[in-house]
Specification:
The protein is an alpha/beta fold and 308 residues long. The chain has eleven helices and eight strands.
Length: 308
């Protein structure tokens, strides 16, 4: 597994191409056989215009990358399901799948939108249902930044029971065996009216244990990649700026979180989408075929959805 990135945010976000050798039987350049073995020098010697080696990033996505996004699937809870985006900003339904569709400028298959706002009501049941949908749909990659949230949060009889449910959830996710992006667990310090009560919030020690356990679990699986949702949420609580692929996002660009203090805004959903693609880039190389401009991804998605 590649290094953990700062999520919703720290995005370190090549396409590879196999070159072919042409003209192997062309006459030797003046000066005798073997005077030059460089194709560009040879062409000049033969009176042909020099042709620079093609830039890999300009040749388009590799076959591996195209296969990766042949059938993407988005799993998760309310953030990935776009909670509040319709009522607070867009006036139309929107999910992380829509922002992913915009960001993927390369040829890709239909995106399976399996995230569900109701995951909190039956975390294990919804997890199993979403995993089943992804498998039946032949998912090639899974994007699930908030899939684990309700594995730890919610009403549980003890802190140990929270960790046991997380372990059970990870055991089920392990069956995917395809590239998978998961978010770690944020530390929500205070209750959020109408959404999260005090009894639903794990102890800080439990959250720390869960994230340490998740990191070990992910390190044992090459196909699993983590987005540092914990670090992103901590930055927002302290008012610190966050980064998206090396670019600072401050209040001049807009809020990343809705007024409820939990769910992502349209801009925040775009940032989360790029954060997920960033961790995949470290393994598969996504120099082309991705729109990395945060404001462009947000505005194009907004325009496409609201113009229907």
């Amino acid at each position: 597994m590649r290094p953990l990135l700062l999520a919703f945010l720290t995005l370190h976000l090549a396409a590879c191409s196999n070159g072919s050798s042409e003209g192997e039987n062309l006459p030797s350049a003046p000066g005798g056989a073997g005077a030059t073995s460089d194709p560009t020098d040879r062409d000049v010697a033969l009176g042909q215009p020099a042709v620079a080696a093609p830039d890999a990033a300009l040749q388009g996505p590799s076959a591996e990358v195209l296969a990766l996004f042949q059938r993407p699937a988005v799993l998760g809870a309310s953030v990935s399901d776009g909670f509040g985006l319709e009522s607070t900003e867009l006036g139309v339904p929107a999910t992380l799948s829509d922002y992913l569709d915009t960001a993927l400028t390369l040829e890709h298959g239909p995106i399976g939108a399996h995230a569900d706002n109701l995951t909190f009501s039956n975390p294990m049941g919804y997890l199993e249902s979403q995993l089943k949908s992804a498998l039946i749909g032949g998912a090639s990659v899974v994007i699930a930044p908030d899939l684990l949230f309700w594995m730890l949060y919610g009403e549980r009889p003890s802190e140990q029971a929270r960790l046991e449910r997380l372990d059970a959830g990870l055991a089920r996710i392990a069956a995917l065996e395809i590239p998978t992006v998961l978010g770690n667990l944020p530390d929500i310090e205070d209750p959020i009216p109408l959404l999260i009560t005090a009894s639903m919030i794990p102890d800080p020690e439990t959250i720390a244990t869960a994230n340490a356990r998740l990191l070990v679990w992910a390190d044992e699986r090459e196909h699993v990649h983590l987005v540092d949702v914990e670090g992103w949420f901590a930055a927002l609580l302290t008012g610190d700026p966050v980064e998206v692929r090396g670019e600072i996002i401050d209040e001049s660009l807009g809020d990343l979180v809705q007024s409820d203090g939990l769910h992502a805004t349209s801009l925040g959903t775009a940032a989360l989408t790029l954060a997920c693609l960033a961790v995949l880039e470290e393994t598969y190389g996504l120099d082309s075929g991705i729109e990395w401009d945060l404001l462009m991804v947000e505005s194009l998605t907004r325009e496409r959805l609201t113009s229907k």
